[in-house]
Amino acid sequence: MAGAEWKSLEECLEKHLPLPDLQEVKRVLYGKELRKLDLPREAFEAASREDFELQGYAFEAAEEQLRRPRIVHVGLVQNRIPLPANAPVAEQVSALHRRIKAIVEVAAMCGVNIICFQEAWKKLPWTEFAESAEDGPTTRFCQKLAKNHDMVVVSPILERDSEHGDVLWNTAVVISNSGAVLGKTRKNHIPRVGDFNESTYYMEGNLGHPVFQTQFGRIAVNICYGRHHPLNWLMYSINGAEIIFNPSATIGALSESLWPIEARNAAIANHCFTCAINRVGTEHFPNEFTSGDGKKAHQDFGYFYGSSYVAAPDSSRTPGLSRSRDGLLVAKLDLNLCQQVNDVWNFKMTGRYEMYARELAEAVKSNYSPTIVKE
Amino acid sequence: MAGAEWKSLEECLEKHLPLPDLQEVKRVLYGKELRKLDLPREAFEAASREDFELQGYAFEAAEEQLRRPRIVHVGLVQNRIPLPANAPVAEQVSALHRRIKAIVEVAAMCGVNIICFQEAWKKLPWTEFAESAEDGPTTRFCQKLAKNHDMVVVSPILERDSEHGDVLWNTAVVISNSGAVLGKTRKNHIPRVGDFNESTYYMEGNLGHPVFQTQFGRIAVNICYGRHHPLNWLMYSINGAEIIFNPSATIGALSESLWPIEARNAAIANHCFTCAINRVGTEHFPNEFTSGDGKKAHQDFGYFYGSSYVAAPDSSRTPGLSRSRDGLLVAKLDLNLCQQVNDVWNFKMTGRYEMYARELAEAVKSNYSPTIVKE
Fold first, then answer.
1. How far is CA A12 from CA A19, A27, A36, B22, in A?
2. Could you report the per-residue pLDDT of A93-111, keeping only the tens digit for each?
3. Which of A179, A372, B100, B232 has the greatest number of beta carbons closer than 10 A?
4. Do residue B347 and residue A234 have CB atoms under 8 angstroms apart?
5. B363 touches chain A (CB under 8 A)
6. With contacts defined as CB-CB under 8 Å, which chain A residues touch B62?
7. Whole-prediction pTM
């Protein structure tokens, strides 16, 4: 298996396939081809100076008679940790804030209205990184960014909840473009998978499936492992989300062949946009760890493969960002597409949710007997 | 857009990509590479003589201490209608039976244990094709096949239910390898999409989500449009299905970029195998029809793009059969893989179905007010 140096699927296909075949491959793999956004030269220059990738694509919708296009520019940020994992916590946080500030400034040049960072963008579970969602230093930092750039900021953090026994949560704070904290949402499904021992850090979220009404559209945040749960996406969608962000931190050996499937299936199944964001790089920890899975004790998870992308309700998607470089992906969405696709495919209308509410309620009973037909 | 003559994604990639890149592309797109099955030469010769494609692949699982491998060979059949859609109904049915018989004989040479045909394999809605699920001529025909070849047969038909007012259903009959009718299952979600005016032919299925215990494993059938509904897959899986067949009839312009995503996402999300089967060819009808969607009246749906494939719980999948030729795809599965992947990813354990049963029950109430956070 190639490591992180293999740049991306898209680059490989572009390089080797003759044009007519490339078009067919893209159609089957990615739906209709998207127009590249004409981003400002100064943005590309700044991205090059700061050494991160910048890409932009536009999703279009049909013209309507009664509604004007509902255009929103989203920004997806993927990055490695700037300092080693054993640097002092305060220095790591400052370095991350500086890095994110530089990327957000480029996003602002590109007209981004809503930006989302990767999961727990301040780093993997480490309790000293945890802070208040409402007025911790990272939220205050993001509030300034939001106000300065008139931008909604989705900031996934480790939350310490001092009003409830100091427990930790895996949380995303949503900050309005006014600079006010609009609210927060918590990770609903906690992995119990290999090295991701997150269940020793926090519990399943207790805030349900809130959707945030921003000036630019209704958004929700399905954090990381929640992307494997179709019901999680569904409930955000039922509550009205037009864009669902999926800030993640996931590694190549474990999930790379699931990555192009899940967020995209969610966009299709729920007639909404989804934004899949993964970090990059390999993080080394001072203490060895193991998961009792037969592997030797080790000091890293393997590499996070980036590949952040946006998927649309009509099954089209952007290419992925690089597998190894920091990057900003800008996507111009016309939210009218959600209803337009809904009106063609009608998955909500034909969803039979009453039947499933009933069947699920039965299925979770301890004396449930599955419907199995035998000869 | 190329038509049906563009053979397949996989053929194109194999032809143009250098080997190391091809391996990476396959890893990202298809998960781990599958071994080709060593099928008997007489099977290839018969397939060639009968002019259909034959492919075979093996999915492997890890060895276990307490369970032996649970090997099953499944067969997926895709075919065009042998006679034009305006030929006499009885002749069309006979021609289809002959065609299917020839393909099933090759499947038997390949050791297939469970075979599934495409949706309503006797043809698109046309009431004279409807027959009894329990003892109609097609069920009797399939019972013979099943008994002769010691093979479970999944036969999706148009059912006429004479015990309930002669209503029509879109049904799959499951026939045991003993030749007995094991039972039937009905299409739970009926499309209201473009030219697929199926809601004028039949209603949503009323049999819930039955799973059939066969000698070779527990199977279920999610018919066609039900593949767009993650809850439909989920309930079959909750009831214990290890293999879910998805017999379909869907066309290129509408759904080709959804096709590689949905059944595969279902295999991943539910720790089971899924078998996506689509027909091939273009079918011309004597009477023009239209769907009020701005298109001129027309006599065909466009082409059915085949591309039948099997997806596994570990996110690997077979290549697709051709986009235009009749074909038989044989896959050797080790059903132990389902539990092995379950024990790594734990999506059922972390699924929180009680919460969703409650939330869905609320959401369907007419006075439901979605959780929307506003500034």
1. 13, 16, 18, 9
2. 999 999 999 999 999 999 9
3. B232
4. no
5. yes
6. none
7. 0.95
